[in-house]
Specification:
The structure holds two protein chains of two kinds. By secondary structure, chain A is of the alpha/beta class. Chain A is built from five helices and seven strands; from the N terminus they run ααββαββββαβα. Chain B has a single domain, classed as Rossmann fold (3-Layer(aba) Sandwich). The longest helix of chain B has 16 residues. By secondary structure, chain B is of the alpha/beta class. The chains are: A alpha/beta, B alpha/beta.
Chain lengths: 209, 175
């Protein structure tokens, strides 16, 4: 293949913008989003913490990004060349009609580590945000039940932060009872709680450090 | 009329044989008790990962753990005397494992099967217990990721050897 043909092909690609490019252009125009140049796979846009819910709602309602695949976070502490806010919360959406995926990134300050919840947009955001809270310590304001989901309730700190000591182990000395959720679910299913479990009723095991 | 004497039931002793001491076997109390215990281990499988799948293979007909008298798998700690941890144990599960161990009646033995149960395996992280001997005492460690059924059988045989050496007048050290 000669150089001329190669350059022709490149030009053709430039002339026909992909669906991702169209969407990126539209969103940048509407919400002034920045394109994340470091993203290697899907389309990734950086939103501001005061308008990202509008972006997500627009994508869900107008662009058929009906599925919230995941919410996760990135800790940019010690990331080479990074000077902005320490954390980024990442929302991954999928369009079931075009099979397009999009990634919306919101930068979050270390000091406050707060962000609005998206539980009202997607029900599964409830647990996903709890996971991000558990592992990164980012507080989602307006979340109905923001507590740890993976680590036990005696756990101190947030293990996926880059400054969490790798070798640190934290023992759990009592069972994780999860009685509050049991009560709630029983009542949702029409049962009546006659006697609530007392706090600290779970069984203590042995000596613990 | 043709008749013959009623034959004696096989296995019964005549008075003379009895007086001579036939039909008796002398042994020690420990040997007798240990013989009973070693040949009727009732495992409680605490299976949390792929090692438990290998244990299923060990119980099934090809490898057949019942050749060693340990086939009666129980899912109640009160009915079992061999706690078999096959899989990864996290700190969140640790109190549950400890509770199951505490609920088992004496005498009881523990086999830690597989790399995770022995050492935490490759889960060198904040959430995995680096070896269940941090939580409960362990009699036999089985290497492998996951161990082959033969390794499970080897563990049972080794545990039987350990049981043979136990003494009733010496209390087993348990935490």
């Amino acid at each position: 293949m000669s150089d001329e043909q190669v350059s022709d092909q490149v030009e053709e690609q430039v002339q026909e913008p992909s669906a991702d490019d169209v969407l990126a252009g539209e969103l940048s125009e509407l919400f002034a989003l920045q394109l994340d140049r470091l993203a290697q796979w899907d389309l990734c846009l950086i939103a501001e913490s005061d308008n990202f819910i509008d972006v997500l709602r627009y994508l869900r309602d107008k662009k058929s990004f009906a599925v919230l695949l995941d919410i996760t976070a990135v800790d940019y502490l010690s990331f080479p060349g990074h000077r902005d806010e320490r954390f980024a919360v990442v929302y991954l959406l999928k369009n079931l009609e075009t099979c397009q995926r999009i990634c919306i990134k919101v930068m979050v300050e270390e000091d406050e580590a707060r962000l609005q919840t998206v539980c009202r947009l997607w029900k599964n955001a409830n647990w996903l945000e709890r996971e991000v809270f558990d592992q990164y310590g980012i507080h989602f304001q307006g979340h109905p039940n923001l507590k740890r989901i993976l680590n036990h309730h005696q756990f101190v700190g947030h293990p996926l932060r880059k400054d969490y000591p790798v070798q640190k182990r934290q023992k759990l000395s009592v069972n994780d009872p999860m009685l509050d959720q049991l009560h709630q679910r029983l009542e949702e299913n029409g049962y009546i709680i006659i006697e609530e479990a007392k706090p600290g009723e779970s069984i203590q095991f042995g000596e613990q450090a | 009329m043709v008749y013959q004497a009623k034959p004696e039931a096989p296995g019964t002793l005549t008075q003379a044989e009895f007086d001579a001491g036939a039909g008796f076997l002398t042994t020690t109390r420990d040997t007798l008790v240990n013989w009973g215990r070693r040949n009727s281990l009732w495992p409680f499988p605490f299976g949390t990962a792929c090692c438990a799948i290998e244990f299923m293979g060990t119980v099934s007909s090809v490898f057949d753990i019942s050749r060693f008298g340990a086939e009666l798998v129980r899912f109640s700690p009160r009915q079992s005397d061999l706690l078999l941890i096959a899989g990864t144990v996290t700190y969140k599960q640790a109190p549950i494992l400890r509770r199951i161990y505490d609920q088992m009646c004496e005498p009881k033995w523990v086999i830690a099967a597989g790399a995770c149960a022995c050492t935490g395996g490759f889960y060198d992280c904040y959430c995995t217990v680096p070896g269940i001997d941090e939580i409960i005492p362990v009699d036999i460690y089985v290497a492998g990721c996951p161990p082959r059924p033969e390794a499970f059988l080897e563990a049972v045989v080794q545990l039987q050897d350990n049981i043979d050496r136990e003494r009733l007048d010496v209390k087993k050290a348990i935490s």
